[in-house]
Specification:
This protein is α/β, with parallel strands linked by helices. It folds into two domains: about 130 residues, Ribosomal protein L1/L10, rRNA-binding domain (Ribulose 1,5 Bisphosphate Carboxylase/Oxygenase, 2-Layer Sandwich); about 80 residues, Rossmann fold, CATH 3.40.50.790. Helix content is about 30%, strand content about 25%. It has eight helices and ten strands. A five-stranded mixed sheet has the order 1-10-9-2-8. A hairpin with a 5-residue loop joins β9 and β10. It starts with a helix and ends with a strand.
Length: about 230
């Protein structure tokens, strides 16, 4: 059940109305009333059919102002690449012993990066990491020989956007403490990437609905002009 602060936030705007970008971001910051620094999120409804492989929208982007989140990075690799990962700031580095640890239920990390030569081992972790969204993949840039760049991008605020089964994209834009201006810069960069990722086979209206919300606050519709 929603609390008093949530209902107070609802009084600050008209839920059925779409707001221009600047006004929407001022509202989302004003209505984020929790005692912690709330995450501001993008929720986007696309006019695609994710059941068709050629209409799935997916990509990665380093947000201009980062996400404001401290990310714990695990790198599964060995040899010289393990040394490279340590030097680049990985929080945990390991090989077969880490795979065994994860098989035992350990998932105390936010992002998992690995090198192609370790995928034979990492592939065993699909049932553990898949449901948590932690499984490395080439599309997200987390299966790579350039582990230093992958770590740097993740630490700098790389996000992955992809459609779910209902053709929605949910993605963090940063923290309330960023203020409207920095959040708008992240929003613009992410929306540009989503628009560019429009599948050639997608017909009709592509951007069907866009809203932003804080962790504990209500959704605010955005009138986005490409």
């Amino acid at each position: 059940m929603a609390g008093k602060k949530y209902y107070d936030s609802l009084k600050a705007y008209t839920p059925s109305q779409s707001y221009d970008v600047a006004e929407a971001f001022k509202l989302v910051c004003d209505t984020a009333k929790a005692k912690f620094d709330e995450t501001i999120e993008l929720h986007c409804k696309l006019g695609v059919d994710p059941k068709h492989a050629d209409q799935q929208v997916r990509g990665v982007l380093v947000l201009p102002n980062g996400t404001g989140k401290t990310v714990k990075v695990l790198v599964i690799t060995k040899g010289a690449k393990a040394d490279e990962a340590q030097a680049a700031g990985a929080d945990v580095v390991g090989a077969e012993e880490i795979v065994t640890k994860i098989q035992g239920g350990w998932t105390d990390f936010d992002v998992c990066i690995t090198t192609p030569d370790m995928m034979g081992q990492v592939g065993k972790l699909g049932k553990v990491l898949g449901p948590k969204g932690l499984m490395p993949s080439p599309k997200s840039g987390t299966v790579t020989m350039d582990v230093a760049k992958a770590i740097k991008d993740v630490k700098a605020g790389k996000v992955e956007y992809k459609t779910d089964k209902l053709a929605n994209i949910h993605c963090p834009l940063g923290k309330k403490s960023f203020g409207p201006e920095k959040l708008m810069e992240n929003f613009s960069a992410l929306m540009e990437a989503i628009v560019k990722a429009k599948p050639a086979t997608s017909k009709g209206t592509y951007l069907k609905g866009i809203s932003i919300a804080s962790t504990m606050g209500p959704g605010i519709k955005v009138n986005y002009k490409q």
